[in-house]
Design brief:
Helix content: 25-40%
Number of strands: 16
Strand order of the largest sheet: 4-3-5-6-7-8
Strand content: 15-25%
Radius of gyration: 24 Å
Length: about 325
């Protein structure tokens, strides 16, 4: 949260601000960021190093050259680099210099500029041409991009179409399935239901999941959560699986699983042991899936089901033209 003045509150991403002059300090106080520092109180390189990988935006109040040199050793990839902005000490211009779309620097620049009465200096081609950038749309809607090269090609072709060249119309799709020949935006709406015998190794379970995803051509970036029954909440293999995929691991009681209205396959042994006749399929539905895309699959004491949630994705009309 950034506070502008006494009554105007703007909700934004977490922001770290560094200033280099007393005028810069005054401006940072107007922005009122909790993580605002003055260069005399900290080492610039150490400050950048400590915050660059935090996932938060970095704002430099001072010369753009200082910011460029400071962040240069840490810049890696546009899909993971944070938003970085520069504001002159008089608050006349707000300039996003890194991660304008995916990191949200352009949007942040506009909001800060509006709040302090500055001019946002946006230089990305899509913004200059008043077009919704496909990577910014994806970022705002928590959609993964299957291939950044395809995203770059899409943007280039779209700019050509905007200029009147219709020879190569770009296209994209929204899908949880693996696409290699077309730009695909991947929604996080796939849930896994997992069951396994006690003591199964993490490697066995992870290989089983990856093999099943590959067999059904499901992109792993569409995964939203891993789910099971309460009795498995301390199962090391499932916990490590969730950590490996960086997903939440959610468990439900047998009573909760038994309440789902959908029809699932039945196992007398599982019901006798755990109080519910099917862990993987029931947990998928309990997690909010509207349908199964992979029914119960078993291998060496492990079971897996995959479901998909309905999503409400509002695609701008200007992008719908290219959706297939």
């Amino acid at each position: 949260m950034i506070n502008i003045g006494k009554s105007d509150i703007i909700y934004l991403m977490h922001v770290h601000i560094i200033s280099f002059t007393q005028a810069g300090v005054s401006l940072s106080e107007r922005i009122c960021c909790d993580s605002s520092v003055f260069i005399h109180d900290t080492n610039l390189s150490d400050w950048v190093k400590s915050h660059f990988c935090s996932g938060n935006a970095l704002v430099f109040i001072g010369a753009a050259g200082i910011a460029v040199r400071a962040i240069a050793p840490f810049v890696r990839d546009k899909t993971t680099d944070p938003a970085v902005l520069v504001i002159d000490e008089k608050g006349r211009f707000v300039i996003p210099i890194l991660s304008g779309h995916i990191g949200g620097a352009n949007e942040l620049a506009r909001k800060i500029a509006l709040a302090i009465g500055a001019v946002p200096v946006i230089t990305t081609a899509s913004d200059v041409n008043n077009l919704t950038a496909i990577d910014e749309f994806a970022s705002k809607n928590n959609l993964a991009i299957n291939d950044m090269k395809l995203a770059k090609d899409f943007a280039a072709k779209r700019l050509s179409v905007n200029a009147g060249d219709t020879r190569q119309k770009p296209c994209f799709t929204v899908s949880v399935y693996i696409k290699n020949d077309i730009l695909s935006l991947i929604p996080k709406c796939v849930v896994l239901g997992i069951g396994c015998k006690k003591g199964k190794s993490a490697g066995e379970l992870e290989n089983f999941v990856k093999e099943t995803l590959k067999m059904h051509k499901i992109d792993y970036r569409s995964l939203e959560s891993i789910n099971s029954v309460n009795q498995k909440k301390d199962e090391k293999a499932i916990i490590l699986l969730a950590n490996s995929f960086e997903l939440p691991f959610v468990t439900f009681s047998a009573e909760e699983l038994n309440q789902i209205p959908q029809k699932v396959s039945h196992s007398d042994f599982v019901e006798k042991t755990l109080g519910t006749d099917n862990v993987c399929e029931r947990s998928v539905f309990k997690a909010g899936a509207s349908e199964l895309i992979v029914p119960k699959t078993a291998k060496d004491g492990m079971t897996l089901a995959i479901g998909i949630k309905k999503i409400d994705l509002k695609i701008p009309d200007e992008l719908k033209t290219f959706l297939i």
